[in-house]
């Protein structure tokens, strides 16, 4: 059968598919795949491996209802219209678990970078502005015993919280639709989370209720010493409002691995701020995580092609 992948991925998954006798075609080139290219490749394929940047909407799914399976190379699947896929009986898989630790590590890195002003300090050397050691230079925040607020206590949120508890003895608050029994943290209302946390870290999925959730009103309610971290989806915070909050002393610093839009424009005013560290959506970008993601999407595709239950189905 024919499998199409919308961007090059680590070879091991492609090998799994080829060794099983399937034809695998990969979109090449620096530029992302265009809508026309995606439609035409899907028409000729039995299954797809898609990226979080591919818009797999109702129109696309209706035109390609012959697809036996779609495996999204990400844990998030907000780029796919799941209701339409269900209606058309196209199985969809994602890549949970294998990227949990990597993404939590990145949140941890962004937190340390924000608290200790690492980006700002690095830039001061690179721009020839560091004049030497100063008793008052780059005073940051100590993270010991702070209160961490987890917005969305799924796998990644809990893993990040455990890192912060282990390293800094933090007290952890969280919001979640359900009580998490094995999670040594306190479930609170969203308002309490916003008002009491020294650090707020976003780990929820993007949906109609989380879209634009962190806006000017919410940033105003956060502690003025607080740090805002988002490694989930850029659409969950409002970037204009975040810029306002960071420049009006409502929020102390921010670490973002996700922006809205992606890629972020180099002209974004957020990039000009000293108290922000921004990375280009690299949460899962370790060799280990990406290799396991590659193998997992391939295994899901093999299952889907023979109409077996997927290993990690989205629905
Ligand atoms: C995902 O896989 O959804 C994450 O955004 C990776 O960083």
Task: Give a quick summary of the entry.
By secondary structure, this protein is α/β, with parallel strands linked by helices.
Radius of gyration: 21 Å
Poorly predicted segments: none
Strand ordering within the main sheet: 8-7-6-9-10-11-12
Basic shape: globular
Largest beta sheet, briefly? 7 strands, parallel
Q: DSSP strand (E) fraction? A: 5-15%
- Helical content stands at 25-40%
Key structural traits:
single chain; 315 residues; alpha/beta; Rossmann fold; 2 domains; 7-stranded parallel sheet; 5-stranded parallel sheet; 35% helix; binds (2R)-2,3-dihydroxypropanoic acid
What would you note in describing this structure?
- With 315 residues, the chain is α/β, with parallel strands linked by helices.
- The chain has two domains: 2-96 and 286-305, Rossmann fold (3-Layer(aba) Sandwich); 100-278, 3-Layer(aba) Sandwich (Rossmann fold), CATH 3.40.50.
- The protein is built from eleven helices and twelve strands.
- Strand 10, helix 10 and strand 11 (253-256) form a beta-alpha-beta unit.
- Helix 1 packs parallel to helix 11 and helix 5 crosses helix 7 (155-168).
